[in-house]
Specification:
By secondary structure, the chain is an alpha+beta fold. The protein has 15 helices and 21 strands. Helix content is 34%, strand content 24%. Strands 1, 4, 5, 6, 8, 9, 10, 11 and 12 form a nine-stranded mixed sheet that branches. The protein has a six-stranded antiparallel sheet with strand order 15-17-16-19-14-18, with helices on both faces. Strands 2-3 form a two-stranded antiparallel sheet.
Length: 419
Amino acid sequence: MAEIKEFSALRFTNKAGNIADLCCPPYDIISDQEKLQYLNKNANNIIKLEAPEQTEAGYLGAKAELENRIKNGFMQKDDKECLYIYEQSFMVEGKQYSFKGFTAYVKLHEFFDGVILPHEHTLSKAKTDRLNLLNATGCSFSQIYSLYSDPESAVPRLLAELSEREPDVCFTDADKVTHRMWAVEKSEKTTEVIKEFADKKLYIADGHHRYETALNFKKQLEQNGQMTENANYIMMFLVDMQSSGLVVFPTHRIIKGLNDFNSQQMLQKINKYFNVAELADGTQFLKTAYQNGQKAFWYYDGNKDYALTLKDNTIMDNLFKNEGKALRNLDVSVLHSLILEGVLGIDKQNLANQINLKYTRSITEAKADVDGGANCCFIMNPTKVSEIAEVAAAGDVMPQKSTYFYPKLTTGLVINQIK
């Protein structure tokens, strides 16, 4: 199954500055203003390499910047191959969480091989940008975030043994997430970790665009006679999906720009499938529904809040028999199929291009957008980690923005220099 191995990462040296000021969240969740803030704090921040302007000059600028940093000793490749154990500790709603995994080389497989499995659709524009950056720099700066199943906790026990010492890196970021990393040189113990993956599949949690880009990059190198051994692999962070520290946030849906939208008419139409009631406490309503396994949404139309609860979970089984059971029973599938497509007439292409749809993780932002002129919003529960694995294992993929793993992996601790 999954083929993994140690590798030598390109990393910042002390000469570049404090590692806390050199790392940042993934480029695609950073605003232009935040990007400037990171660079003002330390001009060597990884964001300058990871998110250049999406022009030929921008990509070539990233290449020149990378070469200068290596030449000037700000970045250096590790002498020995390592597994990079990585831990995050953080608070959510007053509760402490933490999880520990590791970053390694993982051999690339097409999705149809059934070894590395996706769970979400991707957009072409993002893949084009990442491929252009790879071509220019020969590096992937962010790791793919993937899950594996280990009910016996064999890998977590080995990682605990390998990280008993003080971490090589430890810092707390602006979001109060503490990051720790141990560079563990290749040994008999790391080989034990690797052997545990001989029968495991991997489930991509975050980084679908970058994984598909790596596949395309490999094919391109093969076609051009420029193939390197490293291009057969991708840098991937692996964590046990049974970990109690994993947190998935929901992504809410804002509907906008529907000229003939009528909230009351929509509520009347969906009454065939949903119990509809005015709502006083949306947060508690969703929490109870989540605990009880109900498919439910908090709906706001600018005037009132409503509770929408699917009357019978078998409705999706009867109406959408061509979809896999795991996929059709997701909250996001129920919303998209029965309401957004079925009643509001927003088809899959419209949803993919976000013509009448906007995403947010903030309930406050969702409701404010409706108050500011959007048609309505649907506040959702998060997708369960077990549901993600079930959908991927069935060979299905979820709609975009079905999951948001929190916190995001920091970018800049380890870099994969492919060529």
